[in-house]
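Attaching the record inline, Q. Sequence:
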Amino acid sequence: MARINDHDCSYKSRVEELEAEL
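Structure, as predicted:
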């Protein structure tokens, strides 16, 4: 479960970066 959680955190951080570019 830890791996999935870590991946989700990385995905959320990437989404935040993309939103910041807009």
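The chain has a mean pLDDT of 81. DSSP finds one helix and no strands in the chain.

More tomorrow.
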